[in-house]
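Task: complex structure prediction.
Instruction: return structure tokens for all chains below.
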Amino acid sequence: MKRLFISLATITIFLFFFVSCYYDNEEALYPTLSTACDTTLVTFSGTIVPILTNNCYSCHSNANATFGGGIHLQAIADVITNSPRVVAAINQTGQFPMPPGGKLTNCSIVQFGIWVRNGMPNN
Amino acid sequence: MKRIFPAFLLSLISMGIFAQDDLMNIVDQSSPKDINLTTATFKSTRIMNGHSIERMPPGQLDVRISHRFGTINSGGYNFFGLDVTNIHLSLEYGIFNWLMIGVGRGEYEKTFDGFAKFSILRQSTGARVMPVSVSVVTSIALKTIKFPDQTRTNYYTSRLAYVTQILIARKISQGISVQLTPSYVHRNLVATELDPNDIFAMGAGARLKLSKRVSLNGEYYYIANPKTYLSQKVYNPLSVGFDIETGGHVFQLFFTNSIGMIEKAFIGETTGSWSNGDIRFGFNISRVFTLKKHNKPSNY
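Output:
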């Protein structure tokens, strides 16, 4: 009887967490507008650096690059050198899909590809 | 009347002799009052990635360190995966003889997780025969990694995932144990409309005892959801390895294709495939500390 009571109490406590049970997906939750992703004006300082800051520098900055396997992505020269590896990683086609926590937004991946295709200018 | 009464007495005596024979037969048989509970179906509370039917005895704390390296196909420069690491730390405690709870934190997606394992049935022989042991595991996982897109509204509930598993195990002999694990994983937020929020999987695990201290384990989860049109290519997790028990430690060494160490991560988010060579070496180290001594003998 005591076991039954404690089981029910524990399951009830767990059910309080189950109340926040959602069926979300990113496509429906964040519908991308056609104007949201700027693919015409892609600059290093305006477009690429924010992407790197928000997603990559926790491991790949100059300060703590040991977490990132020694790959620096802070100076533009380092990004240019590592760009093939970066492209493979963010497209999840290489051996180290990046960022480890989840894929970048399609917009960010496309913008990085556009910057590479433009010759990786320092703008 | 004079003849009938002695005849009647004689018949009573002969009936009495038959009764004594029956009593002797009963004493010769072993007493069926004892219930022999099966113990040590597996060496540890995990088969390798997933839960096993074993639980912590009351008052004992299990400190677990789980480690997965990188994939072997990353080449010699990366020392065949040993340069990349993924760690999960957890503390697991037995509250009652039938209830165990655990909390953990893993590096993959910086996830905190907690679980409770209830023992429902115990395999036994003797007076009460139960062919299998049954337990229920329920767990919650919380991703704490920053959302990649900070400009949109990110919800706290998008970080949660829930898992429920029913563990059905049988110790077939002293050396062989098997377990079936029907599992249900729910993720609050998935990437696309075609990715399932609910994943149904059937796990199977087995152990072959090689010696007193070493056993060979295998574990496979078959994901029932269709794997086409998903945002990333997902494979069924398969792990093969050894358990080595030394005194208070259990070392589990194995090869697996999944980087995640909690159910939410390795069921449904395993992107490595054995045929591609995305095989990782991993190990779990488990050390049991006794926090509270109990008079009853442990059933571990």
